[in-house]
Amino acid sequence: MRHRKHTFKIGRTASHRRCMIANMVKSLIVHGRIKTTERKASELKRHADHVVTLAKSNALANKRKIVGDLMIRYNSLTTKEARAAKAGDTSSYNIDRRVMGKLDELAKRFANRNGGFTRVLKEGYRVGDGASLCYIEYLSE
């Protein structure tokens, strides 16, 4: 029986789904709003809310769990990037390095909220295949 075995498959293998969700959550954290299909957004909402919940408790185990779930890789900086980072310019960082900083900001923003950190706004239909599109974003609170 498949009781309580909820997952969305959408024609992808398990490893592809895991990578896709991790990349989408990282993009959502960095940009605050992304455009995707409704089916992906409904699954992404679960994962994005869970990541913020983990980030709210400032425990080392939770930070390590986030790094593992989102597959964050800290690539070494070149000397030019290291000099810029030391001076305070973090724009040269790749997206993985920016995620944890943005996640701390989100945790502070939602400190008094118990759940429901994201919302899905329907947008229309894609021209090529007619898939229903929507925006998913973090609340402004």
Automatic annotation (TrEMBL):
It comes from the Bacteria. GO terms for cellular component: ribosome. Pfam families: Ribosomal_L17. The keyword Disulfide bond does not apply. SUPFAM superfamilies: Prokaryotic ribosomal protein L17. Keywords: Ribonucleoprotein, Ribosomal protein. InterPro entries: Ribosomal_bL17 (IPR000456), Ribosomal_bL17_sf (IPR036373). Gene3D superfamilies: Ribosomal protein L17. PANTHER family: LARGE RIBOSOMAL SUBUNIT PROTEIN BL17M, RIBOSOMAL PROTEIN L17. Belongs to the bacterial ribosomal protein bL17 family. NCBIfam families: L17. This is 50S ribosomal protein L17. It comes from Candidatus Rhabdochlamydia oedothoracis. The lineage of its organism: Bacteria, Pseudomonadati, Chlamydiota, Chlamydiia, Parachlamydiales.
